[in-house]
Amino acid sequence: MSQAAQTATVNYLRPNQVDELEGEVKTAEAALAPENAVFAKNLDRGAMAKQLKNAKTMLHDQSPPEVKKGEADKLVAQERELRETILIGMPSQEEMRKNPPGAVAKHREWERRNKENVQNWKNIKLRMNLGSDDQDIANLEAHRPIRNTLNMDGAQIPGTQHYFPQGQIEVKNVMDIEHKQKQLDAMAERTKFLDEAGQLITDEERAIFGLDPLSDEDKKILKLKKQKADAKN
Q1: What is the distance in angstroms between the CA of the first residue and the CA of the last residue of the chain?
Q2: Rounded to an integer, what distance in angstroms lies between the CA atom of residue 73 and that of residue 198?
Q3: Backbone CA torsion sign across 24, 29, 35, 39
Q4: pLDDT tens-digit series, residues 141-198
Q5: Rounded CA gap, 168 and 89, in Å?
Q6: Which has the higher per-residue pLDDT, 94 or 160?
C-alpha cells in the first residue's frame, strides 16, 4: 500500500490518544504479569488480555508513522495544497456561529466535497508534528475563514455585523507602546473618578479598565448620587 493510499484510509491517533493507549498497555501488562498474580486473584484475565491486544493493535495500525528522510518537503507541499483546497467554500466563523439562511446547505455541500481531504490533512499534520504535545495540532478550526459569503440578514443568532475589505488586511500601529500605556492610564484614572463621583459608566467601558459590571442595585444607587449632586449644583 502506498503512503498516499494509507493516509487516505487510516485515521491517525492524536497525541492524547497515543498516550492513553500506551497507558492501557502498561496497566494490562502489569496486571497479567506472573509476579503480580497474587494481587489479581479476581482479575478477568481473558478480558484483560483482549483489552491489551486491542490497544496494541490500535497503536500499531493507527500511530502516525515517522517522516522518512527526504519526505518532509513533500508533506509540507501536500499540507498546503490540501488546506487551500479545503478552505474553498468553507463556511466562515460568523456563518457557523449565527446560522444565517443557507448556512446549513453551504456546510453540508462543503463537507460532502472535503470529507476525505480533511482527514488527509489531519493525518499529514499529525505526521509532520509527531511527538508534539499540542492537542490542537490537527485542528482545522484555526484556519476557518473570517469573511462571510452569505447574507447575514435573518441570521438565527443575531449580532453585530463585521465587514472586511477585499484583499489582505493591513494592521498599522499608530502609536508606540509607551504612548498607548500613558493614554490608557489617563483614561483609567478618569473612569475611576467618574465612577466614584456617581456618574454612570457603561459596562463595556468598565470592562476595558478592569472594573466589574454594575448590578441593577448599584445603578440605582449611582443615579441617586447623581441626582443629589445635580441638586447641589
Answers
A1: 87
A2: 64
A3: positive
A4: 889 988 887 777 766 666 555 555 555 555 555 555 566 566 556 555 555 545 554 4
A5: 18
A6: 94
